[in-house]
Amino acid sequence: MQRMTKQRAAIAELLESTHDFKSAQQLHDLLRERGEAAGLATVYRTLQNLAEAGELDALRTEEGEMLYRMCERAEHHHHLVCRSCGKTVEIDGPTVEDWAQRVGGSFGFSEIEHTIELFGTCAQCAGMRV
Amino acid sequence: MQRMTKQRAAIAELLESTHDFKSAQQLHDLLRERGEAAGLATVYRTLQNLAEAGELDALRTEEGEMLYRMCERAEHHHHLVCRSCGKTVEIDGPTVEDWAQRVGGSFGFSEIEHTIELFGTCAQCAGMRV
DNA sequence: ATGCGTGCAAACGATTTGCAGCCGG
DNA sequence: CCGGCTGCAAATCGTTTGCACGCAT
Fold this sequence. Notes:
2 copies of one chain form a homodimer. Chain A is an alpha+beta fold.
């Protein structure tokens, strides 16, 4: 059902190589630099497809921009993302999971879900910034 | 410093009366219905001002739209929102704050910020659902 | 009187979509 | 060969901004 085109392959490969959160626009630029340019619209469409297929993690930045990255694990987890370069660390926090569950329960809420993402500046980017 | 205009008053009053999360556009429509119409740009600007002044809580939906609601407390906190009726409880969690800071730091990240929202079904809605 | 606040429309940035031609299966 | 995929440009959508005028202080 999913046709394998050169642009889809290029995008998947690019994400595979970094494993960091990147925006559609960044990926578009990176592809162009690599000489494997693809239309911006195609990048967007491909990212959506892959995300729907569960092959990519997606999240929205504070500024409202969507970021995608190659999944490393399917289980529930959160992310610590560098707001400058997109470098990502997957973290699981039994502590917060419990906290969320406990707090929700204490207010009589059930079927509790949570959205938790951490943003920061990684050591490398902090150093470069001067 | 903040000048009190009729549109600012109308917006504040509207938010005060619902205490629910609303988008700028929703507020704009509600104001028009009330016959207290204000320019859409003004609504946006006012919401930003109020949010910066710490008088409004702001969050971004999954779809990327900003929502605002009247604060009940000024300090940093998170929300527990009933996904059925929208009822919101403000929660603070020194535990998670620390956790976020600690986890971020342990990976060498600095200037750590976090996005944490809890969604659940409140006791009342859970009871009604049967 | 001053100059912030407002309204309107144009500008914006991210994302989507219409459509004709391309190409993978 | 056929229909999904692509590229491009135009279209959306939410939000922001430039500018001239109005009104709160």
